C-alpha cells in the first residue's frame, strides 16, 4: 500500500468527426501517457494499493499527505 498523488492524466480523449451530412460522430481514443512518479496510476500498475488524498478541486496540500501516510502506517494486515 502506498500514499500517492492523484495522477492528472486523462486516459480517454473525445474524438469528434463531422460526418458531412449535418451530424457528428463521437468516439473516444485511449491516450496513455507515462505514469506520474509517485502517482496512483504508477502504484496500481506495480500491483500496489494506491491511497490518494483528494478534494473536490484537487487542491490537496502537504498536511493531507502527512495525514494519509500516518493513517496507512497505522494499518495492520
Q: Notable features of this structure?
A:
elongated; 77 residues; alpha+beta; two-stranded antiparallel sheet; two-stranded parallel ribbon
β-strand amount: 15-25%
General shape: elongated
Euclidean distance between termini CA atoms: 11 Å
User: Which residues form runs of ≥5 with pLDDT under 50?
Assistant: none
- Spatially, the strands of the biggest sheet line up as 1-4
Number of strands: 4
Number of domains: 1
Given the helix and strand composition, which structural class is it? Answer: alpha+beta
Number of helices: 2
Tell me which oligomeric state these chains represent: single chain
Outline the structure in words:
The structure is a single chain. The chain has 77 residues and is an alpha+beta fold. It has one domain (2-73). The chain has two helices and four strands, in the order E-E-E-H-E-H. A two-stranded parallel sheet has the order 1-4. It has a two-stranded antiparallel sheet with strand order 2-3. A hairpin with a 5-residue loop joins strand 2 (12-18) and strand 3 (24-30). It is elongated. The protein starts with a strand and ends with a helix. The relative contact order is 0.26. The model has no long low-confidence stretch (mean pLDDT 83).
Amino acid at each position: 500500500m502506498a500514499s500517492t498523488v492523484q495522477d492528472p492524466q486523462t486516459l480517454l480523449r473525445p474524438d469528434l468527426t463531422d460526418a458531412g451530412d449535418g451530424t457528428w460522430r463521437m468516439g473516444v481514443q485511449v491516450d496513455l501517457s507515462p505514469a506520474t512518479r509517485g502517482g496512483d496510476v504508477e502504484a496500481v500498475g506495480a500491483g500496489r494499493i494506491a491511497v490518494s488524498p483528494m478534494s473536490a478541486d484537487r487542491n490537496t496540500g502537504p498536511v493531507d499527505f502527512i495525514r494519509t501516510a500516518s493513517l496507512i502506517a497505522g494499518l495492520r494486515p
